[in-house]
Amino acid sequence: MLTGKQKRYLRKEAHHLNPIFQVGKEGVNDNMLQQISEALEKRELIKVSILQNNFESKQDVAEQLTDGTGAELVQVIGNVVVLYKESEDNKTLTLP
């Protein structure tokens, strides 16, 4: 679990990032989860945008993403979910 201090640090680091995945009306699927897991291994911190045509709640989508990828939920702000997962091979972020 992330502490409040770590989440603040990760929110600051994620501020300049653009979402690299979009969840549309089809919702979260296995292929998307696999691609997000691979992206998290390379980058550690990513943003996922939830499109307007998705009818699930943002919190449900965020929960599906964290459960499916093993990532930590940093923040849900607007239609954007920020995810963090410590990389095994490409460690770039050092948490406080």
TrEMBL record:
Residues 1-96 form the CRM domain. It comes from the Bacteria. InterPro entries: RNA-binding_CRM, RNA-binding_domain, RNA-binding_YhbY, YhbY-like_sf. GO terms for molecular function: RNA binding. The keyword Translocase does not apply. Keywords: RNA-binding. The keyword RNA-binding applies. This is RNA-binding protein.
